[in-house]
Amino acid sequence: MISRIARTTLVVVAIIVIASWPQTALRSNEQSSKFPQQILIIRHGEKPPETARSVDLNAQGKERAEALPNLFKASATRPSPFPTPDFIFATKNTKHSFRPLETVMPLAKKLNQPINALYADEECAKLADEILKNPKYAGKTILISWHHGMIPQLAGKLHATGMPEHWKGTVFDRVWQITYDKEGAATFQDLPQHLLPSDSVK
Q1: With contact defined as beta carbons under 8 Å apart, do 152 and 144 qualify?
Q2: Is the Cα dihedral 190, 57, 66, 145 positive or negative?
Q3: Could you please report the per-residue DSSP string of 39-83?
Q4: Cα separation of 75 and 194, whole Å?
Q5: Cα–Cα–Cα angle for 43, 162, 166, nearest 5°?
Q6: Distance in angstroms (rounded) separating the CA atoms of residues 108 and 198
Q7: How far is CA 15 from CA 2, 19, 25, 115, 155, in A?
Q8: How confident is the model over 67-96, as a mean pLDDT?
Q9: Which of the four pLDDT bands, split at 50, 70 and 90, describes residue 20?
Q10: What is the distance between the alpha carbons of residues 178 and 44, in angstroms, rounded to a whole number?
Q11: Does the pLDDT at position 11 exceed 80?
Q12: Are 37 and 180 in contact (CB under 8 A)?
């Protein structure tokens, strides 16, 4: 027959094991996911003509920036919204453009999130290394606001395939969505934003 002390010891051990199990399981689950869940790449909002020599968004671009949070809300045109980003990146400001940062500022304010704007437009490889190799991004959704000329190269560095070779200079209303499985295989989709009345339907 098991003594009272022995029974008490067994109960204490059982409580310790049960109490520690969720944390152990959570750590195991985190370790099994080495890649982001999704990366969403957008171009900055609309800009003034080159002759204006402005670093900022134009009126329509500012309207798009203010509407950006709607990407992550269900609506008639978007019954399945994009997942809310856990991290936000934007191209580093230059003397020529603050637009990628300006585009995501209203969203970052609404989500109370910081914006990582440390990487220059041409530093696609460095940004990709940060996102794909840093474990803090594992299983997360990341939004990137960038300049259109470098977006295809950035998507390639993020292991996307099948995307257009060029992002058209007149296009501001797309989301390039890269989804990863547990092995890191990437699936690419080119999707509409549906933020402004003039946006593409498909």
Answers
A1: no
A2: positive
A3: EEEEE------GGG--SS--HHHHHHHHHGGGGGS--SS-SSPPP
A4: 10
A5: 40
A6: 24
A7: 18, 6, 16, 42, 48
A8: 95
A9: very low
A10: 18
A11: no
A12: yes
In sequence order, the β-bridge partners of residue 145 are 42, 90
Contacting residues for 163 by C-beta, under 8 A, at least 6 apart? 152, 155, 156, 176, 188, 190
pLDDT attached to residue 74 = 92
Q: Which amino acid is at 192?
A: P
Residue 191: strand pairing partners:
175
- The single-letter code of the amino acid at 99 is R
**75-94 burial code (b ≥16 CB/10 A, e <16):** eeebeeebbebbbbbbbbee
pTM for the model = 0.84
- Model pLDDT for residues 135-192, shown as the tens digit of each residue: 999 999 999 999 999 999 999 999 999 999 999 999 999 999 999 999 999 999 999 9
